[in-house]
Amino acid sequence: MAAGKKAKNMGKAAKGKTKEVTGKAVGNETLEVKGRAEQAAADAKQAGRKAKDALKH
């Protein structure tokens, strides 16, 4: 996987985790859910890239 894209996905996952934790801390369920969704999207992209890379080799 390209290092830049991997770093970008890891950044999105971290941003999502931050939103989730912040939402829990302030009691904002919407922010918490958005954070979980961002994490899931980043994880899905990483999994897709890993599968794509595995098929190349």
Describe the structure.
Helix content is 91%, strand content 0%. With 57 residues, the protein is mainly α. The longest helix has 28 residues. The protein is elongated. The model has no long low-confidence stretch (mean pLDDT 91).
Chain-wise SSE layout:
Blueprint: H1 3-26, H2 29-56
Helix pairs in contact: 1-2
Can you summarize this structure?
The protein is mostly helical and about 55 residues long. The protein has helices at about 5-25, 30-55.
Q: Give the oligomeric state of the chains in this entry, treating copies of one chain as homo and distinct chains as hetero.
A: single chain
- Principal-axes shape call: elongated
Percentage of residues in strands: under 5%
* Terminus-to-terminus distance: 11 Å
Total beta-strand segments: 0
How would you characterize the largest beta sheet? none
pLDDT < 50 stretches: none
User: Total helix count?
Assistant: 2
Q: In terms of structural class, how would the helical and strand content be classed?
A: mainly alpha
Mean pLDDT: 91
Helical residues, percent: over 70%
Please give the radius of gyration in angstroms.
Answer: 14 Å
Q: Please write the string of helix (H) and strand (E) elements.
A: HH
